[in-house]
Amino acid sequence: MAPTFKILSAAAIITLAAACAKHDNHQSNFQKRQVLTPGGRDEKDWAYPESYDWGSINSNYSLCQMGTQQAPIPLALDQGLSQRHRPDFVGFPSNVTGNFYNWGYGPAYTIAHEDGRFNTLPSMTFDNKTVYLRGWHIHAPADHTVGGVRSRAELHYVMVDSAGHEAAVLALRLDPGQTPSPFFSELPKPLLGFNETDQIMNQTLNPRLPLEAVDFFSEFWTYQGSLTSPPCTEGIRWFLARTILFISHEQMQALLLVSQFSARAEQQVWLHQINA
Ligand SMILES: [Zn+2]
């Protein structure tokens, strides 16, 4: 999970009437295109390949080094699966509107909502708490391993509280299989590259499709974790679906083509209270 979503702030974007040549063939899909102004994507003083060293880069990143609930952590079936904190998706919509973009490491999407009105976003509940889907992004390779096996990619549904603060992440592992994923089939073709700062505006998609593919988290691991990028803020409840979301080989190749390495080194299990 990464805190780069402020790249979407209205102040940082300008509307462009001109089409990007690369997407001319797909113009009929677009109602409006916007482009980030130069510098609109945050300059970073950290990088994923050096994630073991984030704590020494900046004093604001000390939790990355000395936190007690840092994510991701290795998971395994012999830890069992969670019987507690079960997510409930009653009323979760099958149609939302938002923006596609590339968060610099892979495909991402933010759901449109009125400023500050997070409680109008698709919601789920756990532990009598309601959290709201602000958007999603994809890491490649996966952040989490299960039994030492790392999937090719991992989809993160970022859930915020009613004030917009990150509260939970639904993590779904992605691997190549024989059948195209309906969820992936809804994404723009071609996908936006990691160097592209364009956003494709006002695009609808069905946010239930990935959840259906993993049986709405009927089996899952959960733990108390953190953001997986600086400043590594803790207090995030992680849910990792046991079921893998399979996409076709072609879809996986298209995904990897627009992705950059974005997996944080696995952290030592400490006070994460796995499944507890
Ligand atoms: Zn993430």
UniProtKB/TrEMBL annotation:
InterPro entries: Alpha_CA_prokaryot-like, CA_dom, CA_dom_sf, Carbonic_anhydrase_a-class. Keywords: Signal. CDD domains: alpha_CA_prokaryotic_like (cd03124). Pfam families: Carb_anhydrase. The keyword Transmembrane helix does not apply. Gene3D superfamilies: Alpha carbonic anhydrase (3.10.200.10). The keyword Flavoprotein does not apply. Residues 44-276 form the Alpha-carbonic anhydrase domain. Residues 1-19 form the signal peptide. One of its GO terms (molecular function) is zinc ion binding. This is Alpha-carbonic anhydrase domain-containing protein. The lineage of its organism: Eukaryota, Fungi, Dikarya, Ascomycota, Pezizomycotina.
